[in-house]
Amino acid sequence: MRVIIADDHPVVRIGLRMLIDLSRTCVIVGEADGPDSLLSLLSTTPCDLLITDFSMPGNQQADGLKMLSTVRRHYASTPIILVTMFANVATLRVAFAQGVMAIVAKDASATELPLAIKSVGEGRRFISESLRTALAQADVEAHSHSPSLSAKEHEVVRMLASGMTVSEIASYFKRSVSTISKQKSMAMQRLGISTDVDLFAYARDNGMVH
């Protein structure tokens, strides 16, 4: 398998290279140190697998999810393994929803990356044990005390997650932008969510968007 690796830390890339060489099934055809150089590399270098960090400094694509969706849009058939320090459950779910095949925790990469490469090579998903535990724990907590949104908050969250802006929602409901912003803030507060990415993940996990 031809592999491209991307991480903004040279030391991490050296570690990844050593682990990939150990697998004996892969050859590294390129390395990138950020989202912009990764997209440029993908456009010129064919590969069968992308192993990338989630959060790397960059211009247009510094947001990990935006980077993933760009890669998926242009290289839909290339399997992706994320090697990340993020253990945020909402982000993990959105990454899988974006078509990522495997997520490996950086602190477990030495033992688990070769397993992830093998799984992906066989067309199976893989997730680090520590991250699997975090997801399972979050599911238990979600079922035990699920916060409830008001009907208006629910509708605002659903529309935001489907791609509408606050201004578009305001004009749709013939309400002021500040009213919609307030409902969005109240919903996020109620759900214990602080970023739009997590709000989008919540909406997806709860069947508000498909």
From TrEMBL:
Keywords: DNA-binding, Phosphoprotein. GO terms for biological process: phosphorelay signal transduction system; regulation of DNA-templated transcription. Pfam families: GerE (PF00196), Response_reg (PF00072). The keyword Phosphoprotein applies. The modification 4-aspartylphosphate is found at D53. Residues 2-121 form the Response regulatory domain. InterPro entries: CheY-like_superfamily, EvgA-like, NreC/VraR/RcsB-like_REC, Sig_transdc_resp-reg_C-effctor, Sig_transdc_resp-reg_receiver, Tscrpt_reg_LuxR_C, WH-like_DNA-bd_sf. GO terms for molecular function: DNA binding. Gene3D superfamilies: 3.40.50.2300, Winged helix-like DNA-binding domain superfamily/Winged helix DNA-binding domain (1.10.10.10). Residues 142-207 form the HTH luxR-type domain. This is Transcriptional regulatory protein RcsB. It comes from Pseudomonas fluorescens. The lineage of its organism: Bacteria, Pseudomonadati, Pseudomonadota, Gammaproteobacteria, Pseudomonadales.
